[in-house]
């Protein structure tokens, strides 16, 4: 018997672009047919893109998906397993079906609906119940969607039904060190399986692809590349998957950098922005953001604007000019001292006689940041370029940012990257080509909003700060538990206090790329008004 050839379509779909996604699936099917494949496997909800969020509450959305699915079934050159949203009998399902030759087979409906991290599936879908088994070239194939195969019971039911091969459709978003976890979670299924995952950026989420196949013993037989579209032909014969190509693993820094680059490219591309602009201070965060933007979009589509104040060091200007030269981007310098003087003159009579507040010293600093934000937004309005903000996760956590100032923009590239990781990513990028000047990496970080200022004037060392934030955010540890790890009580209480107090800022921050298990976004939902005091 000739092997059964299954093509895995690791494709980049766009939410709501039903016709465009159908064309992507059809193009993959044509390529698969040319390669001799018998069947095409697509990712979860490939027809509508993922996650569709509250589009899934609209009856017309389901009707449009059903129409597009019928048209696709009539056009396919080979059968395909396609993921789509289904409405039937007053219920809504996350579904997949074998389609082709103008026919749509019985729908497999996802059974285990996730309500954790960034997932809200129980808001949108009802759970399915019945298994679906298809037979091609004499092979009994079971269908599964994402979490179904990860939980106990699904593999046992498949084996009991005589399934020889499992196909699982997935839209599993990236976070650091996730691929190894996927392999480990499915290694004990006990049936050969093929895992097709979505690739591409969607708002704050990035899907890494990294589709793979495991044999019955849990060994990897195929591994598709991460963060790029790919089509792989996987052969099954005589009860086993035949060994195929295994893409090399990425380092931790390479994974995160690739996710950020893809997130920028797709957010701007899918939303119709042709170029990006950012405020370039000559500091570490804006340098990394600039490098990512150039790698994602190309230097001709990125503009860097340095807006020096009287407190900007000459070294910052020199480093900014040098990095812009290395990357080949348009670079402008717009001094903000005239605007600072104008604001001071305007506000002086209004401030006269007012008693000082706890925030009095930050008023002129925030005015500087807001002047810069206004300049960037003016350039954005005039040119149509998307403003990229440059704040990191450490700053977002403790509110070390200015509303309507350095937080002004459309997309926050490194919003979920700790400051300690910013440095690691800078070293990684320079290992490819040294685009970030050494001075930027080695000098003490500073907002340069007043004389001789450094970040550590008001914050603990970043190694301490990041560790406390990570313990609180990703592990939900209380201050008492974090202190028990050996961190100074004063640091812990101060950092946690700043974290809670600055939720109002984060709610007004632009969306940013998620690369950790828990980012400030879909999976962080704390009340703005709260009197709870952690133990």
Quickly list its features:
535 residues, alpha/beta, Nitrilase/N-carbamoyl-D-aminoacid amidohydrolase, 3 domains, 21 strands, elongated
Write the layout of secondary structure elements.
Blueprint (H helix, E strand, L loop, with lengths): L3 E7 L7 H17 L4 E3 L17 H17 L4 E9 L2 E10 L2 E2 L3 E2 L11 H4 L8 E4 L2 E7 L1 H4 L3 H7 L4 E6 L7 H9 L6 E5 L1 E4 L2 E4 L3 E3 L5 E4 L6 E8 L2 E2 L10 H19 L5 E4 L4 H14 L4 E5 L7 H14 L2 E4 L3 H15 L11 H21 L2 E4 L3 H6 L12 E2 L6 H14 L5 H5 L19 H14 L3 H6 L4 H13 L1 H5 L28
Parallel strand pairs: 1-2, 2-3, 8-9, 9-10, 17-18, 17-20, 18-19, 20-21
Antiparallel strand pairs: 1-15, 3-4, 4-5, 4-6, 7-8, 10-13, 11-12, 13-14, 15-16
